[in-house]
Amino acid sequence: MTEVWLHPNRRVLLLAAVPVGLLAGVSLALLSLATTAGWRIAAWLLLSIAVLLTFGLLQQLLRPRIAYREGKVLFYLKSGGPIAVPLPVVEAFFLSQGPAHLPGSRNRAAETMNLVARLSQRESQWAHRKVKPSLGSWCDGYVTIRGTWCEPLTTDVLRRLNRRLGEVSRAQQAAAQEEQTT
User: Fold this and answer.
1) How far apart (Å, rounded) are the C-alpha atoms in residues 73 and 93?
2) d(C-alpha 24, C-alpha 89), whole Å
3) CA gap 101, 177 in Å, rounded
4) What pLDDT was estimated at residue 119?
5) CA 62 to each of CA 22, 141, 174, 177: distance values in angstroms, whole numbers, following the listed order
6) In what order do the strands lie in the sheet with 142-146?
7) What is the pLDDT of residue 98?
8) Are the C-beta atoms of residues 118 and 139 closer than 8 Å to each other?
9) How do the pLDDT tens digits run along the chain, 182 residues long?
């Protein structure tokens, strides 16, 4: 079972649902008021788009930024499945500050709090990965998750992540030692 360690930014996703809801409302109103086949087709197309957008938003709402499953830390920083990093490779989490990568020219200078996962230098195959730039970056063994697109980053969140990383690491080491003795 997958254990969620870092949630997406639910506030932004729910805010994005407002125009989608308005689109659905307009399409339903148009559908009920349509008197010609052309208007009905347009209303159904708009409603279809609203439904597809709703499913996309729900998918993003349920998709964590970081999770854990079966000895792997899962980083959801690209389309498709997560990047699954073996637990021993992830050393620690810490906070940093960096560009928010928000759309629009006014937002170019905006900064946000970021979460950084430090990966083991000895595991050079994990040093670089291609990720969606708006969600984060993965370079030189450091995975940066932009705070814009995850739950609010606080020292409590940081403590929780590092505590859980330590707990599952110790449990995995204990299981490995027990397996060696039997």
Assistant:
1) 12
2) 45
3) 44
4) 97
5) 22, 27, 32, 36
6) 90-99, 111-119, 142-146, 136-139
7) 76
8) no
9) 899 999 998 887 777 788 888 989 999 998 888 888 988 999 999 999 999 998 887 887 888 999 999 999 999 999 889 999 999 999 999 999 876 666 665 656 667 899 999 999 999 999 999 999 988 999 999 999 999 888 999 999 999 999 999 999 999 999 888 888 77
Q: Could you give the CA distance from residue 127 to residue 83 in angstroms, rounded to a whole number?
A: 13
**3-state SS string over 106-139?**
HHCCCEEEEEEEEECCCCHHHCCCCCCCCCEEEE
Residue whose entry in the numeric block shows the structure tokens 């060696």: 180
What does the block give as tokens for 30?
A: 């148009």
Amino acid at 99: P
What are the domain boundaries of the chain?
Answer: 9-62, 70-181
Phi, psi of 103 (to 5 degrees): -70, 155
- DSSP secondary structure code for residue 45 in this structure: H
Q: Residue 107's CB: how many other CB atoms inside 10 A? A: 12
**Which is it for the CA torsion 69, 72, 76, 78, positive or negative?**
negative
